[in-house]
Amino acid sequence: MRSPGLNPERSAVVLTVMLRRLWLLFAQATTVGLGLLFVVATLRPQWLGRYSVAPAAQTSVSTQRPTTLPAVATSQSPTGIRQIAPGEPTVRSGAVGSYADAARQAMPSVVSVYTSKQLKHGTGADDPLLRQFFGDPNGLDSQRVISLGSGVIVSPEGYILTNNHVVQAGDEIAVALTDGRRVPAHLVGADPETDLAVLKVDLQSLPAITFGRSETLRVGDVVLAIGNPFDVGQTVTMGIVSALGRTNLGINTLENFIQTDAAINQGNSGGALVDSNGLLIGINTAIFSRSGGSVGIGFAIPTSIVIHVMDQIVHTGRVHHGFFGIEPFDITPEMVEAMQLKRADGVVVNGVLRNAPAGRAGMEPGDILLSINGSPVADSRSMLNQIAQLEPGTRANVKVLRAARELDLSITVGERPPPPK
């Protein structure tokens, strides 16, 4: 008798079915696993354990700012957000740890300026009711009102820069230095047009500040404001350059301000605005505020104007601003369309004063002033600043547009008359 055996053909069929079932099970398990992995990687990537935190002892803060960001691998989510790949090292621009060196360099050069004015009791002296309660007002003692500002030592010989509005109403002026000395000062000269003034104290070997170049400033540069706000003592605040060339603010006649968000308050006027190296780049002069306190909008006169004004005050006692004798008007889009102008830059000459330098040179109402000594004219405020910095008596080459033709005029610069008191 033969023992029963398996049919070879039947065995092959059974094996094939078993393999197909195993393959199907494997494929389903793999699909489910990949799906779960995708969900976890998208919603809970930290569960994968691919992020690590460096030990505290190995962390450091870089004081160097890389000029370019390193290339890193990125991944993109279904929503289109780009993000660096998990575990990719991140390099950040390091912030400067401290501006103590810049502050230490500039602070000895910033002083407090005190002015006092004598007030007499004369108002209502003939009022019988006042005489009944207070007696003869002429017999009462006078009072003194003290005002506070700041200033910057600009030379070892004792010249100090400040704002004109800080000292213009004072009968007496005193300066308090950072070393505790308090000395009287006299006014060398002032320029109401730019709101700058120069004082002089009888001291030698003073810590004069070093000037920077305001024309190299960029929006976003770090600046420090130094002064004596509210007479609390010398104070340093930090911010950035918020804007450059601010005009049309109605603060001064000649405006070209640095705007900063460094906190500036009452008493800071005339103080220093310095860069991150401690170099003077402006004189703090005004704030924009509805409450009287700092709201992060302060204005400083740039050193490009300060040096020009200070040199003239020191040498002559006053400032000689250039003068053309024209009434400017900014070009508007409507004017470009109505006059069919090919260019929108320049300033329209709305009027020319009789016997003024511009009139004697042949400038006429309706001309469009394009450039002064090769520098383009953008608007009436910038044109006023350009003319003001010209030396009276010199000749200025001016380009104007008249009846669609460009003309070159040579103007002998006059001197701007002083503002009415």
Structural descriptors:
single chain; 421 residues; alpha+beta; Thrombin, subunit H; Pdz3 Domain; 3 domains; six-stranded antiparallel barrel; 8 helices; 21% helix; flat
Regarding CATH, which class of the largest domain? Mainly Beta
Q: What share of residues are in beta strands?
A: 25-35%
Report the structural category. Answer: alpha+beta
The helicity comes to 10-25%
Number of helix segments? 8
Mean pLDDT: 79
Outline the structure in words.
The protein is α+β, with helices and mostly antiparallel strands and 421 residues long. It folds into three domains: 103-200, Thrombin, subunit H (Beta Barrel), CATH 2.40.10; 214-316, Trypsin-like serine proteases (Thrombin, subunit H, Beta Barrel); 322-415, PDZ domain (Pdz3 Domain), CATH 2.30.42.10. Helices cover 21% and strands 31% of the residues. The chain is built from eight helices and 22 strands. A six-stranded antiparallel barrel has the order 3-4-5-8-7-6. The radius of gyration is 36 Å and the shape is flat. The model is unreliable at 50-72 (pLDDT under 50).
